[in-house]
Amino acid sequence: MNIDKSKPVMVTGATGYVAGWIVKRLLEEGLTVHAAVRQPQNKEKLKYLDAVAEDTPGTIKYFKADLMDNGSYADAMKGCQIVFHTASPFFLNVKDPQKELVEPAVFGTQNVLEEANKTASVTRVVLTSSCAAIYGDNKDLESKPSGKFTEEDWNTTSSLKHQPYYYSKTLAEKEAWKICQAQERWDMVVINPSFVLGPGVNPFGTSESFTVIKQMGDGTAKAGAPNWNLGVIDVRDLAEAHLKAAFVPEAQGRYIISARGSSFPEIAAILREHFGNKYPFPKKVLPKALVWMFGPILNPALTRKSISCNINYRWDADNSKGIKDLGMKYRPFKESVVDFFQQMIDNGYFEKAK
């Protein structure tokens, strides 16, 4: 595949947590970015991307588009060879998972990829999926002969009632592959990140990642952290993976993008080690029985089934394909956690430290 970097590239959900860093890296590389956003007239929401554009050689152009508005990506996609589809809702605490998670994820994917079918210039789509499309619960690892999740795996245990966010990501990626395989002009590379951490281009992002780290330091989790294991990836490394997926001609298929496994107690320990006792970080590991009993009362998104199938279960995934094909290198996890929390301190998330 011959990739022409003089052509514009389109990014959906350009003001999002992951997309913000993708846009930043594209602008640093001198590309023209067609940023598809819901409110291009909202200068306040675009100010962080505008600031990046001022300091980089690339050019950013805004286009109005919405996941749920059929055909709304046509103008933004015009003339683009590469399309990055990152836009998808990431909320765990929802009242109607079908309307709030599944429909925007699946219909949005259909909307963007069917527009790619109509846009002759498009030759590659880079889709931001998730490890949530690979597994539903940590317990699922027990059925894997290698003891690791791989790109061959698909989530078969999530549903509207159990892990609905994971379910939405699974349905959306499957729909993307269905659309891709029904045509031959453009190819698709899928990025499957684990839990994303690290400072945002917009320091006031709405991703669940911000919520988790904020609660580590604002006293919400001072009683302790559950032994919930998960994969972790720095948002800056994840952006790099997207660029490699776009511009390495040989890139193909799915890529698990995850630096390593971690846990909530380890994240808390890193914060305590670096920032000391200035903030009410969790110091204890909460017993599973206690979380099972009180967790759903304190957080409706935390069901007893999800607690049963995840806490105290191991997490591991094979990230070798991304290292081999894309040349991925991962920064130390401690750096991701410390930089993220420091950004929150700098932006007034917490009361003044003791």
UniProtKB/TrEMBL annotation:
TM regions (residue ranges): none
Domain NAD-dependent epimerase/dehydratase: 9-249
Xref: Pfam families: Epimerase
InterPro entries: Epimerase_deHydtase, NAD(P)-bd_dom_sf, NAD(P)_dehydrat-like
Listed GO MF terms: oxidoreductase activity, acting on the CH-OH group of donors, NAD or NADP as acceptor
SUPFAM superfamilies referenced in this protein's UniProt entry, alphabetically: NAD(P)-binding Rossmann-fold domains
Record flagged with keyword NAD: no
Keyword set, alphabetical order: Oxidoreductase
Protein name listed in UniProt: Dihydroflavonol-4-reductase
Source organism per UniProt: Uabimicrobium amorphum
